[in-house]
Amino acid sequence: MARDFMAAAGYDDERHRDAVLVVVSELVTNALRHARGVTGLRLSHHDRGLTVSVHDAGTRPPRTLPLDPGRPGGFGLHLVRGLTEGVRVEWRPGGKNVWATVPQPRAGER
User: Fold this and answer.
1) What start-end ranges are recorded for coiled-coil regions in this protein (predicted)?
2) What is the dihedral of CA 45, 33, 88, 72, to 10 degrees?
3) Rounded CA gap, 99 and 106, in Å?
4) Are the C-beta atoms of residues 92 and 75 closer than 8 Å to each other?
5) CATH of residue 20
6) How many domains does the chain have?
7) How many CB atoms lie within 10 A of CB 3?
8) CA-based diameter of the chain, in Å?
9) Distance CA 59, CA 88 (A)
10) pLDDT < 50 stretches in the chain
11) To 10 degrees, the CA torsion angle through 92, 40, 71, 101?
12) Which of 16, 74, 96, 108 has the smallest number of Cβ neighbours within 10 A?
């Protein structure tokens, strides 16, 4: 779905597309593992970049775990924060919306 959205919106920069796909994957995986599942997924594009919003029924905010190479997992939010302008949480009835914006690549980065 994310690939189709980006193709329809004209996203042709491979690195930017890959970054968006990582963010979608990590936010959806976190909702499935820690927040009782995904209740919605929304992608939107604007001048700043592409925003990924994942709705879930969880009652706890996402946690960024300390990096520990001896522990499997726990790297997802570190990846998302590195690829985006930051992770935001909006509380809503029945859960929350976790979203992040992958910025447009600058002209010299394409």
Assistant:
1) none
2) -100
3) 22
4) no
5) 3.30.565.10
6) 1
7) 12
8) 43
9) 15
10) none
11) -80
12) 108
